[in-house]
Design a protein that fits this description.
Length: 161
């Protein structure tokens, strides 16, 4: 499925990997996708700026109950969701969790939107936001050494391209 060359995985490849995950691994995956591996406390505890990777940050107030931080190295402000799929989203983490569950269950866009109380266009946008984040994470995993591959038949669908 994945090769040792730097090719961008297709959405079908990502979906196939998700279908094969056991439930416990899928639950773990959903927690990772929610913020792409960034815990809200990570900025303060590790002291890393998401923009410049600087380690001199300080608290910089809060907006709507969410902590903001200021990097003294690059002079940029950021929050807990910076760099995550929830960045600039007005919806709660509960709504996102419900949508991620619908995404993992492979529900159609309309049904996922109905379940989460969001519009169809928001559901479409969120699905693509999640898939783009996943393809970026998969691209980071470069295989090394001897790699063996088996046949995998994936139905091609270029609808919308």
């Amino acid at each position: 499925m994945l090769t040792n060359q730097k090719e961008t995985p297709s959405i079908e490849e990502i979906a196939e990997v998700l279908r094969k995950l056991p439930k416990d691994k899928l639950a773990y995956f959903l927690s990772l996708v929610d913020d792409l591996g960034k815990e809200p406390e990570e900025h303060e505890s590790s002291g890393i700026c998401p923009y410049c990777s600087g380690n001199h940050i300080q608290k910089n107030g809060s907006v709507r109950g969410l902590q903001r931080y200021y990097c003294c190295t690059c002079h940029r402000s950021f929050g807990d969701t910076t760099g995550s799929v929830r960045y600039k989203s007005k919806y709660s983490s509960e709504t996102w969790a419900a949508y991620l569950e619908a995404f993992a269950l492979k529900l159609p866009l309309r049904e996922a939107a109905r379940k989460c109380g969001i519009s169809l266009s928001t559901s479409f946008f969120w699905r693509h936001k999640i898939l783009n984040a996943l393809s970026g994470e998969i691209r980071k995993n470069i295989l090394e050494g001897i790699v063996q591959e088996d046949e995998t038949y994936i139905q091609d669908n270029y609808k919308g391209n």
